[in-house]
Each structure stands twice: as structure tokens, then as C-alpha cells.
Amino acid sequence: NARQFCVLQPFFKAELSSRLSGTVRSVEKNIGDSIRAGEELLVLEVPDLVADLKSKEEQVNLKKNEVKTAQALLSYKDAGLEAANAKVDQTKAAITQAIATREFRKKRLDRFQTLAKDDTVTADLVDEQTKEFEAAAAAVDLAMAVKGQANGSLAEKKAEIVAAMAEVEQKRSAISVAILEM
Fold first, then answer.
1. What is the CA radius of gyration of the chain?
2. What distance in Å separates the CA atoms of residue 171 and residue 166, rounded to the nearest whole number?
3. Using CA atoms, how far apart are residues 53 and 55, in angstroms rounded to an integer?
4. Residues 83-133: tens digit of each pLDDT
5. 3-state helix, strand, coil in the chain (%, to 5)
6. Cβ-based neighbour number of residue 19 at 10 Å
7. What DSSP state is assigned to residue 181?
8. Cβ neighbours of residue 130 under 8 Å, at least 6 residues apart?
């Protein structure tokens, strides 16, 4: 039996490095221990990274709160849209009422004009009926103008809803970006 001094080399060797610099808090494996992929070899203490991560988590929470605020604003805009729709319906009813009143006043004026030809009523009564008809006709014009204003307000509310929805989506995207930056 011959004996000879020899040096053994490991079959596999891996160089280890870290992307972060910090203080080694603990070493989980010893020289010669077998390891598997994904196993923790050592734990680094990196206070700057921890603080940065906490800051990014706070940014994510801030973005989430911004989404909630934007959603509340969207709900407020939805209520405004409902009110604008109701105003449009109200003006349609006012137009119908004003037209009916105008037609009634026109028929009444025609009757008074016919009676005035027979000298059954005085010219003053015909003038009075003429003024009432003109007032009813003006009420129709006013109701039409109010309808135009109500339709404009409705269109404005619809545009506000679209803008508020876009803002909610933008805020949601900001959350995703903040999470990716973590």
C-alpha cells in the first residue's frame, strides 16, 4: 500500500456575488454543504433598500388612495349626469306644456276675433287675448332655449364622465407602474 499526498478539487464550483452591498447578517450554509437552486445561502442587511422599499410601498398606497378619490369623483359626475338628464326631461315637458298653452291661446284669440267682427266683444278684449297669445308664444321660445341649455349641460356632463373615467384608468396605471418600480 502506497500513500501519497493529494489535493482534492470540488467537482462543481460557483462564484457568488450580490447586486447589493450590505452587512452579512447570517450565513445559512457552511463550506461543503450541498445546496439546491433557490436556497438561501446568506442574509444581507441592506437598510437603504428596506427604506426604499417602504417608500415605494407608501407610493403604491398613495396611488390606491388616488384611485379611490378619482372613483368618488366619477360617482359625483354620474350624479350630475342624472341631474342633467332630468333637466332635459323637464324641459321637454315644459315645451309640451308651453305649446299646448300657445295653441289654447291661439284658439281663444281666434274666437275673440270672430266675436269682435260681430261686435259681440270689444277691441280691448281682443287686445288682451292677443297679448296672452304672444306671451304663450314667448313661453314656447323660452322653453326651447332652456332645452338647448339643458342639452348643452347634458353633453358637458357626459364629457366630464369620460374625463373622470380616463383619470381613474390613469390612476390605476400609476399603481401598476409604482408596483413595477418596487
1. 41
2. 9
3. 5
4. 999 999 999 999 999 999 999 999 999 999 999 999 899 999 999 999 999
5. 70, 5, 25
6. 4
7. T
8. 109
